[in-house]
Structures are given as C-alpha cells and as structure tokens.
Write a structure and sequence with these properties.
The chain has 58 residues and is mainly alpha-helical. Helices cover 84% and strands 0% of the residues. The chain contains two helices and no strands.
C-alpha cells in the first residue's frame, strides 16, 4: 500500500511542477507529502490492529 500511495503522490506532483509557480508548487508539494505520509501511517496502524484482532487489552 505504501508503494501505491507514494507513486500516486508523485504522479499528482508532476502537473503541479509544470502548472504552478515554483514557490506555490514547493508549498503544495510539502503539504501533500505530510498529508500522504500521515494517511499512510494511520492506515498502517489500522491495518496492523486489524490483523492482530484489535488493540491489546490490559
């Protein structure tokens, strides 16, 4: 899933580089990276808990 998410992010960045001014593209690129990495991290935690059958009790 991480590979798919990061490739999708890179593909979304390409038009930004060509269509927007450099300072705007850099800002959006950094924002996209934060959102994508946070989303993938949250998905990773959710998926790991699902595989283990939920959070440990105790």
């Amino acid at each position: 899933m991480w590979g798919i998410g990061l490739i999708a992010e890179a593909l979304l960045r390409l038009p930004l580089v060509y269509l927007l001014p450099v300072p705007v593209a850099v800002g959006l690129s950094q924002g996209m990276a934060i959102v994508v990495l946070a989303g993938l991290g949250i998905w990773n935690v959710w998926y790991a808990r699902r595989l283990r059958g939920g959070p440990p009790e105790g």
